[in-house]
Amino acid sequence: MASSLYPRILQGDFHWSLAACWRWQRDGLLGWLPIGVRGKLLGAVRRLILKPDLEGLALFRQEEDELAALAQPSWESLDRETLHQWIRTEHPSAIVLQLPAERALNRVVTLPMAAAANLRQVLGYEMDRLTPFSASQLYYDALIVERHPEQRRIRVELSALPRSEVDTALGNLAALGVAPDVVEVTGSRPGLNLLPNEKRPRRRVWPRRLRNALIAVSLSLALAATVLPLWQYRMLVIGLQKQVDVLQRESGQVLNLREQLEKAVESSRFLLQKKQNSPPII
């Protein structure tokens, strides 16, 4: 198995990062905790989905794989305060503008593996070849769905929407004082966000940092609770081993003394018997 790993490493099939290592370590330690405790530490991932249409704006709450309808006010009845009240009530981790799948362009394309390092930029250069549009006419994003290190190729799922339609929807939300964190297509693969980085709002990071700090402290305590008994047991075994070594040395000395005593007794018996068997001297 180890020999099969080296070609994959040399071909760049492994993509390590501090974030990935942290997630791996975090998920491994969280697996030891009860489900309820894990949920409180990680916090529920709640997204507020906004689906605009000609009639109005449909609001949905998404948690895990569950989608719950909240309201569907018309554009005439919807105002800034009403929408912000929903946002305050739901307190979502992300506000998502979701547009219909029939308006999207979805393709799976094959690219060189080197493109993975800067996928969005590479697709921007290739957009007019891959689609009937240029990159400036679209909002787009892509995810790697397959890696083929032997051919040094990757398969990428590309999702795009006309910029004019997205800008119209963003403008309607901006008039209500809302800036979404994510623009996606209904039914798209999780992780796709068609909104460029420069258009994504900067949210407050302190709640997330505080939660991460709480997770780190909790995991450290859980790790200490797991390791400390093992360390104490190890120290106990080491102490007992030292006592056993002392007893073995002492028992070895006793055996040596017994052996010497037996030899002395045997020598005395031999001399006594020899003396008894010797003829008397007149």
Structure class: alpha/beta
CATH topology of the domain at 45-202: Nucleotidyltransferase, domain 5
Record the strand order, biggest sheet.
3-2-1-4-8
Secondary-structure element string: HHHEEEHEEHEEHEH
Poorly predicted runs: 1-16
- What gyration radius follows from the Cα positions, in whole Å? 37 Å
Straight-line distance between termini: 92 Å
**pLDDT average, as an integer?**
80
How many DSSP E strands?
8
Number of separate helices: 7
Supply the CATH architecture of the domain at 45-202: 2-Layer Sandwich
Give a structural overview.
This protein is α/β, with parallel strands linked by helices and 282 residues long. The chain has a domain at 45-202: 2-Layer Sandwich (Nucleotidyltransferase, domain 5). It is 49% helix and 21% strand. The chain contains 7 helices and 8 strands; from the N terminus they run H-H-H-E-E-E-H-E-E-H-E-E-H-E-H. A 5-stranded mixed β-sheet has the order 3-2-1-4-8, covered by helices on one side. A 3-stranded antiparallel β-sheet has the order 5-7-6. The radius of gyration is 37 Å and the shape is elongated.
Topology overview:
Layout: H1 2-10, H2 18-30, H3 35-42, E1 46-52, E2 57-63, E3 66-71, H4 80-90, E4 94-99, E5 105-112, H5 119-130, E6 138-148, E7 153-162, H6 163-175, E8 182-185, H7 206-277
Parallel strand pairs: 1-4, 4-8
Antiparallel strand pairs: 1-2, 2-3, 5-7, 6-7
Brief summary of the model shown:
The protein is an alpha/beta fold and 282 residues long. The chain has helices at 2-10, 18-30, 35-42, 80-90, 119-130, 163-175, 206-277, and strands spanning 46-52, 57-63, 66-71, 94-99, 105-112, 138-148, 153-162, 182-185. The chain has 7 helices and 8 strands, in the order αααβββαββαββαβα.
